[in-house]
């Protein structure tokens, strides 16, 4: 990500698709902590994307996990786009609110 960021003009921010649940530095295979991202100059991240909530053949992330990831990123000075994690069928049916209230109430309780 740092290499990609270096090719952009300075006013263009680079965003991570996710941030690790773990804090600090270590062997988090396939994961980047908020500290690692900010050390690389990455100042934005997503949390709670619908694909991460559904999982990839295993149980996905809960609102609790999303809340902790969001708080970790904010504590490291990152800006966060906390996604509500709705599924396409729910969005098309116009029932996004069923995802918004539970997910964001926990995120806000972790962050505030």
CATH-assigned fold name: TIM Barrel
Task: Kindly provide the name of the CATH class.
Answer: Alpha Beta
Q: Give unreliable regions as ranges.
A: none
* Total domain count: 1
Cα-atom Rg, whole angstroms? 15 Å
Describe the structure.
There is one protein chain. The protein has a single domain (13-111), classed as Aldolase class I (TIM Barrel, Alpha-Beta Barrel). The protein is mainly α. Helices cover 45% and strands 9% of the residues. The protein has helices at 2-6, 34-39, 50-54, 63-75, 88-93, 97-111, and strands at 15-16, 44-47, 79-82. It has a three-stranded parallel beta sheet with strand order 1-2-3, covered by helices on one side. The model has no long low-confidence stretch (mean pLDDT 84). Helix 4 packs across helix 6. It has six helices and three strands; from the N terminus they run H-E-H-E-H-H-E-H-H.
Briefly summarize what is shown:
This protein is mainly alpha-helical and 112 residues long. The protein has 6 helices and 3 strands; from the N terminus they run αβαβααβαα.
Q: Which helices and strands appear, and what pairs or packs with what?
A:
Blueprint (H helix, E strand, L loop, with lengths): L1 H5 L8 E2 L17 H6 L4 E4 L2 H5 L8 H13 L3 E4 L5 H6 L3 H15 L1
Parallel strand pairs: 1-2, 2-3
Helix pairs in contact: 4-6
């Amino acid at each position: 990500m740092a290499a990609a960021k270096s090719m952009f003009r300075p006013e263009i921010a680079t965003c991570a698709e996710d941030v690790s649940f773990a804090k600090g530095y270590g062997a988090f295979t396939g994961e980047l902590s908020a500290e690692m991202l900010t050390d690389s100059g990455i100042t934005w991240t997503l949390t709670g994307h619908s694909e991460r909530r559904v999982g990839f053949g295993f149980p996905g992330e809960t609102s609790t996990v999303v809340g902790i990831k969001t708080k970790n990123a904010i504590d490291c000075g990152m800006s966060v786009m906390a996604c509500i994690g709705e599924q396409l069928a729910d969005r098309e049916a116009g029932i996004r609110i069923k995802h918004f209230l539970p997910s964001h109430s926990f995120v806000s309780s972790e962050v505030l």
